[in-house]
Amino acid sequence: MNPVNYLYLAALLFTIGATGVLIRRNAIVVFMCVELMLNACNLAFVTFSRLHGNLDGQVIAFFTMVVAAAEVVVGLAIIVSLFRTRHSASVDDASLMKL
Amino acid sequence: MSAQLAAYTTSTGEAFQFWVLGTVAVIGALCTVFMRKAVHSALSLAGTMIVLAVFYLANGAYFLGVVQIVVYTGAIMMLFLFVVMLVGVTAADSLKETIRGQRLLALLCGVGFGVLLLAGIANASLKDFAGTGQANANGNVEGLAALIFTKYVFAFEITGALLITAAVGAMVLTHRERTERARTQRELAEQRVREGKHVPPLPAPGVYARHNAVDIAGLLPDGTPSELTVSRTLRERGQIRDVSTQAINDLRALEQRSEDRLERTPIEPETFKRPEEASK
């Protein structure tokens, strides 16, 4: 097996995540799909690190994880405060600028 | 290991692992997207992330593999589950389309994007995999540390600022400052009397001698359930069980059983056919 297959898998997972973001309307599930896309990118970075034979790709994947953690914290806080005001986690209901 | 990682093709064991676990990862990703309940999506995503951690380990990223399990499946997914529980586990996504044709178009876009991405990778010349054996010679964690604290030290410092900002932001977003004094019990009682509605305590849930669960609305004298008896949280989630029709259903089942026991043939509408059907 060629290690390029890891890249194909990463592309497939990214596509599934992107489709999920477009299809789903529950804000939490949309957020999970974003996480799936981030993870697919990480897999691609790690595979590129193996391709080039240095650890730069792994460092970038590490930074991606840190940014993803920060993003999850803020995103979930936004979802919780949205749910408090609207009593719904559907992205369709958050259609007004002012809460 | 390093010889295998450097090779053009992987070992048979890694290939087997890839095909088995890759299938699991794709199925988990699809379940994440298509499961109706958010809890099921979260669990599927956790499975996919664990599989990805195994792939990191197989690719020579030992530190990242462990971090993936600890941070992603351990911390982030549990945070997701907490929020799912806060928002309501049973709140299933409605499957009604609000924009006509949106789902079909989204699927089409996704397939097109995937085909482009896969074709791009297929066209790239990714022949020689150098492998991480050379880079991991002094240990994977030591190698990463050397890079992070020399070449990427500025990005690492910025990361600290980002994490602090995110923590403060989350606290600001979810914390609600009390702007006015909490009303005492006496003030609440006075307000209740002044408004004139529900002066006594709210009625208790449950139907006496039948059910006493908190999610069952008490019945009014005319047999209709009263929503006032169920707590506000359950009411807003729509988790009220209605047992007002149960008595009639029990009676109907009892009549059915007694008819079966007495071997009475129910009066079928066959004998009362309409004239036009009987003539056929």
Top CATH class of one domain in chain B: Mainly Alpha
What's the end-to-end separation of chain A, in Å?
54 Å
Supply the CATH architecture of one domain in chain A. Answer: Orthogonal Bundle
Structural class by helix and strand composition of chain A: mainly alpha
Number of strands of chain A: 0
Subunit structure (chain A): NDH-1 is composed of 14 different subunits. Subunits NuoA, H, J, K, L, M, N constitute the membrane sector of the complex.
Catalytic activity (chain A): a quinone + NADH + 5 H(+)(in) = a quinol + NAD(+) + 4 H(+)(out)
Membrane topology (chain A): Multi-pass membrane protein
EC number (chain A): 7.1.1.-
List keywords for this structure.
heterodimer, A: 99 residues, mainly alpha, Helix Hairpins, 3 helices, elongated, B: 280 residues, Four Helix Bundle (Hemerythrin (Met), subunit A), 11 helices, 0% strand, extended, disordered N terminus
Folded structure, characterized:
The complex is a heterodimer of chains A (99) and B (280). With 99 residues, chain A is mainly alpha-helical. Chain A is built from three helices and no strands. In chain A, helix 1 packs antiparallel against helix 2 and helix 2 packs antiparallel against helix 3 (56-86). Chain B is extended. Chain B is 59% helix and 0% strand. Chain B starts with a helix and ends with a helix. Chain B is mainly alpha-helical and 280 residues long. Among the domains of chain B are: 1-91, Four Helix Bundle (Hemerythrin (Met), subunit A) (Up-down Bundle), CATH 1.20.120; 138-173; 203-266, no CATH class.
